[in-house]
Amino acid sequence: MKHSRPWLVAVAVLLAAIVPAAAQDVEKYAMNVTVHKLDNGLTVLIDRRPVAPVFSFFTFVDVGATQEVPGITGLAHMFEHMAFKGTSVVGTKDYPKEKEALAAVDAAYHAYDTERRKPGGSDPAKLEAAKKRWKDAQDAADAFIEKNEFSRIVDEAGGVGMNASTNSDQTVYFYSMPANKVELWAYLESSRFLDPVFREFYKERDVVMEERRLRTESTPTGRLFEQFLATAFLAHPYKQPVVGYMSDLMAFSREDAEAFFRKNYVPANLTVAIVGDVKPDEVIPLVDKYFGRIPAGPKPDPLRTIEPPQTAEKEVILIDPSQPVYMEAYHRPEGTSPDDAVYDVIADVLATGRTSRLYRDMVRDKKIALNTGVSSTLPGGKYPTLISIRALPAPGHTNAEVQAAIREQLDKLKNEPISAEELKNVKTRAKAGLIRGLASNSGIATQLAFAQARYGDWREIFKSVDRIEKVTAEDVQRVAKATFVATNRTVGRIENHDASAAMRKDKEEDAR
């Protein structure tokens, strides 16, 4: 008996309905999307999708680790941890008293920090006493906190998937709720930008410090990655770790966080997308009522620092008794570049799926690698960035073998046009990826907010696929020749002690 596959029919229908073959298809989709800009500069997108009585939202804040300066690295990421601490109304038992207690915490912290960083060294007894006064002040302030009240309100209202995320380019906030809770959502989400209270700030700072120890300092790949970015970027803040440097985490204050917030969390820097069983004519008055309370402010000035052209190959070698790891990266233009789609095609051809060039050559055929991967925008795409290639050598094989295989594949991209079949497969996957991204309220909200904030037009969701559709084999060869050159390359690798000893022996033999 032959079984039908309804999901194939659904994909075909979605391809026809969602992936634009012409401008009118985008405009047809636009009938469901309302863009509303408030007087204070905040942008809201509403996509009515009455599939189920729920909605999802995605708040995009155009600030990430690149907006930090020396001394406060890691502060953008701190707002993930502050996102659900509440306001002067939510999360407190008695805010006037709590406010006084928080001021006492700040004063005690500065006294401790001053003693800690005293030129010539601190007095151990004075430092310990100052630390105790600071801890006592935090304990006193904690007595006024209604723990996890923001999260509890959302949970009791049926909210799910509540979270936040930070990277080099942006900070985002999101969750989903029943459709009849739109007004509650509008009040809560606007309040966190209108009237946040950074309670438990230093406790959360300790959590971030532990996160850094766990993910960076305690793992060879974490240490390599941090050194790799710091080496690849000479000047641009993409070299800074999102989690921050430990010395900065130990030093920045609640007042530093409030100053960073006032500068960057202005309505002109916020884009909110709401998708689900919601009606624009009902949502817009609520958005105006609650988000309109947030005072307007100037959008922060753009970054001044531009990464200078790389003129020499760079290398980072981490000696560690662990699994060897290999990666290399090349500078490329920002995500708004006309060639952005070409880099996406290159990344796809090299490393997407089991039919990709790197997988077939290095994992399946030569069996010199356990896995491979390519990132077309590392660590972000808002500014000129990197296309990076990585591989994990298989047991008994070396980084040198992996490197040679990667270089061979990059040379093929430069010297031989990719096949028509490869190009067709990339374009098909791009369309399928768009469909997957638009399969849920949360996926649509994410893409709408990102495209509107980054490009100034949510229609870029569709235009990106159009641009991939227009990429030719000649484009790939042209970009590969310009990008994959030694002077534009940074190499990073982890060598275990046995490998490092072998390297030294080889060098000694070469010298003889």
How are the elements arranged and paired?
Blueprint: H1 6-18, H2 23-30, E1 33-37, E2 43-48, E3 54-61, H3 75-82, H4 95-116, H5 124-142, H6 149-156, E4 160-166, E5 171-178, H7 182-194, H8 201-217, H9 220-232, H10 246-249, H11 254-264, E6 270-276, H12 280-290, E7 314-319, E8 325-332, H13 340-351, H14 357-365, E9 369-378, E10 385-393, H15 399-415, H16 420-437, H17 441-455, H18 460-470, H19 473-483, E11 489-495, H20 497-511
Parallel strand pairs: 2-6, 7-11
Antiparallel strand pairs: 1-2, 3-5, 3-6, 4-5, 8-10, 8-11, 9-10
Helix pairs in contact: 1-16, 4-5, 7-12, 13-18, 13-19, 14-15, 15-19, 16-18
Question: Summary?
Answer:
The protein has 512 residues and is an alpha+beta fold. It has 2 domains: 54-92 and 145-293, 2-Layer Sandwich (Cytochrome Bc1 Complex, Chain A, domain 1), CATH 3.30.830.10; 314-511, Cytochrome Bc1 Complex, Chain A, domain 1 (2-Layer Sandwich). Helix content is 50%, strand content 16%.
Fold and architecture overview:
The protein is an alpha+beta fold. It has two domains: 54-92 and 145-293, 2-Layer Sandwich (Cytochrome Bc1 Complex, Chain A, domain 1); 314-511, Cytochrome Bc1 Complex, Chain A, domain 1 (2-Layer Sandwich). 50% of the residues lie in helices and 16% in strands. It is built from 20 helices and eleven strands. The strands form two sheets. A six-stranded mixed beta sheet has the order 1-2-6-3-5-4, sandwiched between helices. A five-stranded mixed beta sheet has the order 7-11-8-10-9, with helices on both faces. Strand 9 (369-378) and strand 10 (385-393) form a beta hairpin. Helix 15 crosses helix 19. The longest helix is centred in the N-terminal third of the chain and has 22 residues, at 95-116. It is globular. Mean pLDDT is 92; it is low at 1-22.
